[in-house]
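Take a specimen:
=====
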Amino acid sequence: MLVCDEPWSGVDPAGAERLVALLRGLAREERVGIVLADHHVHEALALADVVVLLVDGVVEMRGTPTEFAEHPLAQGRYLGHWQVTGRSSLI
């Protein structure tokens, strides 16, 4: 099990892409479970099998990346332009 707390912090876009590829490889090839806490939605969706959105410590949404992307709340608040109201985390 690998626990990552905002792994993209301070990483440029090219580095973030390499990090996503590295983590995806660990998860799939080495069968390592990954728990990822992040505020960078697009990178998290590229890596996740299951997305849980916490707002002020309460689960607001849970599903696959596709379900998250299609959910009206996510489309309006989190995908087009990242707006944080309260303390939001993507796990």
Summary: The domain at 2-90 is CATH 3.40.50.300 (Rossmann fold). Confidence is low (pLDDT under 50) at residues 81-89.
